[in-house]
Structure formats: C-alpha cells, structure tokens
Amino acid sequence: MTASGPSAVPVLTELIGWCSATILLLTIARQVHAQWRSRSTQGISRWLFIGQLAASTGFIVYSWLVANWVFVATNVLMLATAALGQWIFLRNVRREAARKK
How far apart are CA 60 and CA 38, in angstroms? Predict the structure, then answer.
C-alpha cells in the first residue's frame, strides 16, 4: 500500500505528531498553571510569553502554508496558552507592585 502527496501521511506518523503535540501542550499548560497558582513572577522572564506569542503566530502561518494540520492545531493552542500566560504574568506584576506600596 503506497501513497504520495501531503494528504497521504501514514497513521503512525500522525499519531506520533499528535502525541508529541499533546505532551508539549501539557508541559506548557503546567507551567502556566504553576505561575497562576504561585501568583508570582519569580523565575519567569518578561519575554517568555512574548516570544512564544510571536513564534506560535509564525508557526501557525508556516504550518498552514505547508498543510501540516498537527502543527496548525498545536500552534493555535500554544498561541492561546501564551496569551493566557502573558495575561497571568501581567496580573502577577500588578499584584507584586501593589504589595510593595
């Protein structure tokens, strides 16, 4: 059984992609959750989520152009995670500044 073209990706290859994407998303989501629970910016770079927002946006466009739906979906979710992480970071910055007053 042979197939060619971008839409003829073997099931095992797709499964590897989706499993890897799930692991990546769970890892990043865990970091965002830890930041939310700690209510602190300690150990978090101001540029972490800004960089992730930019990279995910670029990867969404690239993945769409090469028709890689695993990476389109993954990077859309990574973009959402980065936006949430940035929001939590900024909220924690405001809280830390208010505590110092």
Answer: 30
Amino acid at 53: L
Distances from the Cα of 23 to the Cα of 11, 30, 47, 78, 85, angstroms: 18, 11, 23, 12, 18
What domains, with CATH codes, occur in the chain?
11-38+45-100 (1.20.1280.290)
Q: Which residues contact 13 (CB under 8 A, 6 or more apart)?
A: none
What does each of the 101 residues of the chain score in pLDDT, given as a tens digit? 445 555 566 888 888 888 988 998 898 888 888 888 988 888 888 788 888 899 999 999 999 999 998 989 999 999 999 999 899 999 999 998 898 88
Q: CA triplet 61, 67, 72: central angle to 5 degrees?
A: 50
Q: Which two tokens stand for residue 19?
A: 């499993």
